[in-house]
Amino acid sequence: MARTLRVLARLMGWSCVAIGVYQVLLGNAAIPGAGSAGPTVDSWGRFMGAGFVGYGLAWVWAAGQRPVPARVVRWLAGVFLLGGAGRLLSLAVHGWPHWFQIALAVIELGLPPVFFWLAAADERTLRGDAETVAAGR
Question: How many domains does the chain have?
Fold first, then answer.
């Protein structure tokens, strides 16, 4: 479980960094359907892209820790889940967005439970290893 958590967290982190850099560099052109949204949305999108780079780097940092900190994984996955919930709220208020945004919402709502499960399983394994070491004294 630890290896799976580490690999998935690292993949998540570098994916977020790449997406964030893409948004910073391309602005509105990086957002399906927002090409003519104007300078305000472009500015907001580039700013949010920088935030997404930071979010991705937090995942990369967590993946590099030994062991991967389950609490940090839960927080980062919770933020991702909140983003998916925001997309659902937008859908309820404004209707269906571009199809790519629907695909992103599926990922944002489906991946966090996997991270929650992996973090809990890794935590149980670590707790079991610690108990084994303590019993062997």
Answer: 1
